[in-house]
Design brief:
- With 461 residues, the protein is mainly α.
- The chain contains 18 helices and no strands.
- It has helices spanning 7-41, 46-54, 56-81, 85-112, 114-119, 125-138, 142-154, 162-184, 194-219, 235-267, 276-290, 292-310, 314-347, 354-387, 391-415, 420-427, 430-444, 457-460.
- α3 (56-81) runs parallel beside α12.
- The protein starts with 6 loop residues before the first helix and ends with a helix.
């Protein structure tokens, strides 16, 4: 079993993984504090369920941004291997335009039709009413988040990752402080409940936007991106993004829609003793905590593999892929153990009915073992295969396993009134399936595709 043993390689992985993992950890901490505070402000679980379901469109937007940035990373990581920052600026400019249009349309949708949006996820009138009041405020954050988050994800491809930690720490502190003030009515403010949580999150998104673009336009010298570059448009890069990046974008959008449908399935389950939405929200928090390093490694893998291919070192890319594949096995098992250790501790933070606590515990046990396969599939698909430019294969695997296997099985399980943990396992059955398939693909060596063009100076202008 030949793998990389040199310390420099692992230091490089950690240099990219740790800031991304910290960003994911801070994002997780923000969401967890929201759920804890809302859970304590309302022991019926309505606020917790309403905010969880009302954030589903925002979840879709975040994955759209990730998909757009992923489309850019497929190309820009390989151009970074050539140190071609001029081409990378053009690619990012195109992606930001797309992010603005999509996030604006989604913002208008949740602001104009909030009740229709909530009705897709729940048939409980109390949850719908609370969710509507949340959406009417948080909707104004969509465009700001769409632009800042897409930019933050895009610049990872040139190994510019530390700014994301600064952005997320500021966002976390802003959100938690304003939650404390506005949800509970501290410091003389009125107790606004779920509306206070929405205002706090909106303020945090405004801070994220200001810091991100101040850094990009004024401070950063590596990419040297300036406001004038927002108007760049190159037909060659647009064509390459459609050919190689569009499958990544479609992949993320379709995945986010499927996950949103699955959330709606849980939202419409009425035969469970505990609240499936609240229990799943708590279980998801623990999974996010345990997978921050997993997704950090996945993103680092795409950058490292893409950089090696862009520099023309294909043998090195294959050796890196083999090493990262085995690393994903180890990290997955560790994440599983972390979930099993933390599950009881986390549940006790919530003031929710005992039936919901029991259900959350059951869901966490199921999620713990699924996370092993999440590590394998994420590192393989989001990291190695995308970094290698094998985006169409990734799209095919994701769509088939999620849309034609996991989602239909979950719907059938809910219809047949399977226990909620069994429904959750059916929802996640795509993870082991695509993990196995992607490892076979990596072993075949057919995934390496050089996408970066060799431009003359005048051709890139």
């Amino acid at each position: 079993m030949q793998i990389i043993t040199e310390k420099k390689f692992y230091k490089n992985i950690m240099a990219i993984t740790i800031p991304i993992a910290l960003q994911n950890l801070i994002t997780f901490a923000t969401s967890m504090m929201d759920t804890i505070m809302l859970g304590r402000a309302d022991d019926t679980g309505v606020f917790l369920s309403a905010s969880s379901l009302a954030n589903q469109p925002f979840f879709i937007l975040s994955l759209v941004c990730f998909g757009l940035a992923g489309a850019a990373t497929v190309l820009s990581a390989q151009y970074w291997g050539k140190r071609d920052t001029k081409s990378i600026r053009s690619i990012i400019s195109i992606i930001l335009k797309a992010a603005f249009v999509i996030s604006l349309l989604m913002e208008l949708a949740v602001l104009i039709f909030p009740r229709f949006v909530m009705g897709m996820y729940s048939n409980n009138s109390d949850i719908i009413d609370a969710g509507v009041s949340y959406l009417r405020i948080i909707g104004f954050a969509y465009v700001l988040f769409g632009l800042s988050n897409t930019m933050i994800c895009c610049i990872r491809s040139i190994e510019l990752v530390k700014i994301s930690v600064v952005v997320n720490i500021t966002s976390f502190l802003t959100n938690v402080f304003l939650n404390w003030v506005l949800i509970f009515g501290n410091l003389g403010a009125p107790a606004m409940g779920i509306r206070g949580a929405a205002i706090a999150t909106l303020a945090a998104r405004i801070m994220e936007f200001i810091i991100t673009f101040t850094y990009i336009f004024v401070i950063d010298k590596r990419l040297n991106f300036r406001p004038k570059h927002l108007f760049l448009f190159n037909k060659i890069f647009a064509s390459d993004l459609l050919k190689h990046g569009l499958p990544v974008f479609i992949n993320e959008v379709m995945w986010s829609i499927a996950i949103s449908i699955q959330a709606a399935v849980l939202g419409h389950i009425t035969y469970s003793a505990g609240d499936p939405v609240a229990a799943n929200s708590i279980a998801s928090m623990v999974q996010q905590l345990s997978t921050v390093v997993i997704f950090g490694i996945a993103n680092a893998s795409a950058i490292i593999i893409g950089k090696s291919i862009g520099s023309g070192n294909l043998e090195r890319a294959q050796l890196e892929a083999r090493t990262l594949k085995y690393l994903s096995y180890v990290v997955g098992v560790i994440a599983c153990v972390v979930i099993l250790i933390l599950k009881n501790f986390v549940i006790e933070f919530y003031t929710i009915p005992n039936e919901t606590k029991v259900l959350a515990n059951q869901l966490m046990i199921a999620i713990a073992f699924i996370t092993i396969f999440v590590s394998i599939s994420s590192t393989s698909i989001v990291g190695i295969l995308r970094g290698g430019g094998d985006t169409r294969f990734c799209l095919a695997v994701e769509l088939i396993t999620l849309w034609f296997v996991a989602t239909p099985l979950a719907l059938a399980g809910a219809f047949l009134k399977f226990p909620v943990p069994a429904v959750l396992i059916l929802m996640k059955i795509d993870e082991p399936a695509k993990g196995i398939i992607s490892v076979i693909r990596i072993n075949s060596g057919k995934w390496i595709k050089s996408l970066a063009r060799d431009f003359g100076r005048e051709e890139r202008l």
